[in-house]
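Summary for the steering committee. The consortium agreed at its last meeting that each partner would contribute one worked example illustrating the joint modelling workflow. Our contribution is presented below. We chose a case with several input lines so that the handling of multiple components could be demonstrated. No manual editing was applied between input and output; the record is shown as generated.
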Amino acid sequence: MATTTTETTEAPGGESKFPPLDVKSFPSQLFWLVIFFAALYLLMGRLVLPKLAAILSARKGQIDGDLARASALKDETEAAVKHYEKALFDARAKATDIGRDTRAKVSAEIDAEQATLDGALSKKIKDAEAKVAKAKAKAMESVESIAGESAADIVASLTGGKTLKTAVAKAIASVKR
Amino acid sequence: MANDPIHQFRLHDLAGPVNIAGYEISFTNSALFMGIIVVTITGILLLAARKGALVPGRLQSVGEMWYSLVDNMVKNVLGEEGKAFFPLVFSLFSFVLVANMIGMFPYFFTVTSHVIVTVSLALFVVCLVVVVGITKHGLGWFKLFVPHGVPLAILPVISIIEIISFLSRPISLGLRLFGNMLAGHIVLKVFAGFVVSLGALGGIGILGAIAPMFMAVALTALEFLVAFLQAFVFAILTCVYLNDALHPSH
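What follows is the complete predicted structure of the assembly.
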């Protein structure tokens, strides 16, 4: 018993044997290698690796889910923006229509008002012109008679005699002409 | 004895000799460290996965990167069919990685510096390739050794080369890891030993110890890189070999 131990571990009579190539130590190393490597394989395969895989796949799932949600939200945002733009466009078009209609209505009203006002004004102007013409004619008539009287007076004072009204009137008419 | 660079690879019985069917299977320091490796991996990853936070903390990030590294490797090399092998590749990668890293601690035993461990893992992978290949494709899987589009005249030669290269896979896979870890640790120990023995001389010896001191520091950094790289290489070659089992037509 003692000899086997010393032979495998510390060879007596010097260090002649190179330990890594000492065949006597092989069975022990092989035996324990099989046991411990099998244990490691089982521990890794059954216990450790599933845990790590679960962590990594959970993270991947989370990231993928987040990305999917982000892209869904982005689509939603884009749809909202499109909707908003359409609404804005519609509102603008409507505003333009209303503006045009209002402008047309107001300018029609203005035109009508202008027309009535123009009619009234021109009538007033015509009336006034007629009045002025009448007054002028009247004034001209009275000028004739005043001129006749003054002319007769002047002739009477110059000649000291009476003047014929008809002759005066004749003279005035010839001057006027 | 402290300066013996081979001493660190010695096995010691920890629980007395145990024999089964004439084979000694004592619980040695190697077995202890295999147990430590398993506990370390499981502990770190369970701690990392404990909270399962949506935004990972530092430790959880490490666990997730660890997982994703192997996951991407398996997905890229094996495709979706390779999912079944993910726990195996993950276990292999983690076992080798943590074994190499724990070996970087002074006075700790490096499980992967023993050829029986690395070659056993490699043999297991290659045997698995054969078993999976034959169960999936039947005897048609052996077309792996008969490449398409090769002239009939040189086909036997090519097939022999293919078979030899296939059979040498467990050796290259196991010995690469073993050799890297063994050589790295020996070199580290040798340079560290220089520092100690030169420093013990005093005076000029201390001056002379400066160079190996820096060398030992630089080599330590290199060994950390190698420790990771070898685990990565082991895992990716496992994937590449398993790919032959799943998709034998090149």
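Residues 26-159 of chain A form the longest helix (134 residues). Residues 25-176 of chain A form one domain.
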